[in-house]
Amino acid sequence: MESLFLVIATLCYLCGTVGYLIYLLKDREVLHRIAWTILLVGAIFHGAALVVRGVGTGHFPLTSIREAISLFAWVFVVTYLVVQLKLQLRILGSFVSPLAVIFMLSSRLLPTQAILAKESFRSGWLIAHVTSIFLANALFAMLFSLGIMYLLQERRIKKKNFGLLYERLPSLDRIDSIANVCLMSGFPLMTAGLITGFVYATMIWRSPWNWDPKEVLSVVTWMIYAILVHERLAVGWRGRRAAWLAILGFSATIITFVLANLLLTGHHSVISGNLYG
Question: FRET partner for 80 with CA separation of 20 to 30 A, picked from 74, 93, 101, 109?
Answer without folding.
Answer: 109
